[in-house]
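Hi V.,

Quick status before I head out on leave. The structure for the redesign project is tokenized and pasted below; the design run finished overnight.
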């Protein structure tokens, strides 16, 4: 049985794992993303991969990264990492001597769910990755929809409010501005400052900058009404976005992955009453490793319906 290496490059951490052919993560490690220099970051990745590949006999490496990929080999640019049309696949291939496959990180999360996660038995699925921003992947009849120039699936950037908040993409009122973890944290910090008597403000020790994605949930469980309101407002935005996507795609299933989703079933419990009839939402069962497992499976994904493609 051939083991595979999956690399999930994020704006904060790089996750690397050895994945078996039956999709089990045999070994897992992570380290901080070196954002000062792409060359140093790729060096860190290669230094981790080389001994793992030797130990587990891996010949295939899959890389998932934020940013726009070109020809499945290069990354033009990304919001968080200073790529500049960087030949990521070639660099890692030459340093490790292994075959390297490259794809967008949100697409990798889709592949992970498709083969190993919640989407194994469905035809049509949308994966929404909720982190600092919002990304996603669209599967139609078990094929991934990439769009022209590989640019489809930007699920964070359809417009919820044409007069809304300015977005990094240049538009206003994008879904990401309301339903990302960053948007949630902004909402919570604002509510804490406006309600200095709240448990949330107290638990943040009077410093709103201490509020991350988890604290409002912890405060809510302890009875904080302000945190409950913040979470309800956030869930309202998230549900609006999911319902809009459902109107367009009507998938069998939406799968949610990413930071806030680690809160677990409370998210779906709060979402359910706000979803349109027939909209089915599940939390990723892959414990935050959908992107990593999916990266290891890029080759399998491409071969699954691209048997005649030379440039897989
Ligand atoms: Zn946008």
């Amino acid at each position: 049985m051939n083991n595979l290496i999956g690399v999930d490059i994020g704006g904060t951490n790089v996750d690397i794992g050895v994945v078996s052919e039956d999709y089990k993560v045999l070994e897992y490690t992570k380290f901080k993303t070196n954002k000062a220099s792409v060359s140093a970051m790729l060096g860190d990745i290669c230094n981790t991969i080389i001994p793992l590949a030797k130990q587990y006999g891996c010949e295939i490496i899959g890389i998932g990264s934020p940013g726009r990929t070109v020809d499945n080999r290069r990354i033009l640019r990304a919001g968080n990492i200073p790529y500049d049309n960087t030949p990521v696949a070639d660099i890692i291939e030459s340093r490790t001597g292994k075959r390297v496959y490259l794809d967008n990180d949100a697409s990798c999360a889709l592949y992970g769910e498709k083969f190993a996660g919640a989407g194994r038995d469905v035809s049509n699925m949308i994966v929404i990755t909720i982190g600092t921003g919002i990304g996603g992947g669209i599967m139609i009849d078990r094929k991934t929809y990439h769009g022209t120039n590989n640019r489809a699936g930007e699920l964070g950037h359809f417009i919820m409010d044409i007069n809304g908040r300015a977005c990094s993409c240049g538009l206003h009122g994008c879904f990401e501005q309301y339903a990302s973890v960053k948007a949630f944290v902004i909402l919570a910090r604002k509510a804490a400052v406006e309600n200095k008597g709240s448990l949330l403000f107290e638990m943040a020790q009077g410093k709103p900058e201490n509020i991350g994605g988890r604290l409002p949930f912890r405060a809510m469980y302890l009875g904080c009404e302000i945190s409950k309101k913040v979470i309800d407002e956030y869930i309202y935005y998230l549900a609006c976005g999911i319902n809009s996507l459902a109107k367009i795609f009507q998938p069998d299933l939406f799968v949610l992955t990413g930071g806030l989703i680690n809160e677990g079933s409370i998210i779906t419990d709060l979402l359910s009453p706000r979803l349109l009839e027939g909209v089915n939402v599940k939390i990723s069962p892959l414990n935050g490793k959908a992107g990593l497992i999916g990266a290891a499976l890029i080759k399998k994904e491409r071969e699954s319906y691209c048997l005649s493609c030379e440039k897989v």
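Above is the designed sequence. The chain is about 40% helix and 20% strand.

G. will cover questions while I'm gone.

Best,
W.
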